């Protein structure tokens, strides 16, 4: 129960934050913009080939980009200082002086801040849903709810990553550098490294079919795992890396269902390392 108590306090403190309102508003505007672009693209294709009908999967593809970009930012902004700020201010000793163990504090931080990110996603996707109904006119509520739930899971994974990094560090500055470095790794370095290795091994970046190791490598980051998980719950292709890059045989890491395994690992490993460091930290 101590973890839940900490989580409730974290949620109450964060939900009153102007920062949450601002980031949620930005997210809502992006999803609304994605809904408009989805309807605009449908009208354009209708003019070109006479096929204007869009499935909810196609609409979700239009909203996945803002979600994949903004949800990690929102989650990391609300989690990177979760423990580091307490250590920096010395208030962590007061917190641990109450009947909370270090593990319960970490778990409570994750619960509370995941709930905050979930609220932001619900508001943003609520606006996006209204936009889709207004601009497009027909949306599968079940598919949209599944999309929302997987995105909330995705946000919780990034909260775990942020809290894990926060638990490893002594200051918010170090934690901020860590999460920025992680974003750069996932969004820039990982893909560039994959393309560089492909050119080095194959002599070209235009290979058909793509080698299995390449598809496996680009399927590992949490953003790719999120896409794979969406492919499973929506029962449609077009999301997972195995659909983007054609291979002779889909490797295990690129299997859509394995996206859930990768998301679980991205959530658990940083938390485990962070808790290990936090348990051994001298807080005096």
From TrEMBL:
Pfam families: ABC2_membrane_2 (PF12679)
Domain of life according to the entry: Archaea
Keyword Transmembrane attached: yes
Claim: Nucleotide-binding is one of the keywords in the record: no
Keywords attached to this entry: Membrane, Transmembrane, Transmembrane helix
Record-annotated membrane-spanning stretches: 20-41, 61-83, 110-138, 144-165, 177-200, 257-278
Gene Ontology terms: cellular component: plasma membrane
UniProt GO molecular function: ABC-type transporter activity
Stored PANTHER family: ABC TRANSPORTER PERMEASE (PTHR43471), ABC TRANSPORTER PERMEASE PROTEIN NOSY-RELATED (PTHR43471:SF1)
Protein name per UniProt: ABC transporter
Source species of the chain: Natronorubrum daqingense
């Amino acid at each position: 129960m101590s973890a839940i108590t900490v989580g409730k306090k974290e949620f109450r403190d964060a939900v009153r934050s102007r920062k949450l309102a601002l980031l949620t508003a930005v997210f809502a505007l992006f999803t609304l913009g994605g809904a408009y672009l989805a309807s605009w693209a449908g009208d354009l294709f209708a003019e070109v080939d006479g096929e204007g009908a869009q499935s909810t999967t196609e609409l979700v593809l239009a909203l996945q980009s803002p979600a994949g970009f903004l949800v990690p930012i929102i989650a990391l902004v609300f989690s990177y200082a979760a423990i580091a700020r307490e250590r920096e201010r010395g208030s962590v000793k007061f917190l641990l002086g109450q009947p909370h163990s270090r593990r319960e504090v970490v778990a409570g931080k994750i619960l509370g801040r995941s709930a905050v990110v979930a609220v932001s996603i619900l508001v943003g996707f609520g606006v996006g849903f209204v936009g889709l109904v207004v601009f497009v006119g027909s949306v599968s509520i079940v598919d949209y709810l599944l999309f929302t739930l997987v995105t909330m899971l995705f946000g919780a994974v990034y909260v775990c990553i942020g809290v894990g990094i926060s638990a490893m560090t002594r200051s918010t500055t170090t934690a901020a550098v860590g999460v920025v470095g992680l974003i750069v790794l996932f969004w820039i370095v990982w893909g560039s490294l994959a393309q560089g290795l492909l050119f080095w091994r194959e002599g070209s970046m235009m290979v058909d079919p793509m080698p299995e190791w390449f598809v496996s490598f680009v399927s590992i980051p949490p953003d790719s795992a999120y896409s794979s998980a969406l492919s499973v719950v929506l029962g449609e292709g077009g999301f997972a890396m195995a659909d983007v890059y054609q291979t002779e045989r889909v490797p295990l890491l690129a299997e859509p269902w394995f996206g859930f395994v990768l998301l679980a690992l991205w959530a658990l490993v940083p938390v485990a390392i962070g808790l290990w460091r936090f348990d051994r930290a001298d807080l005096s």
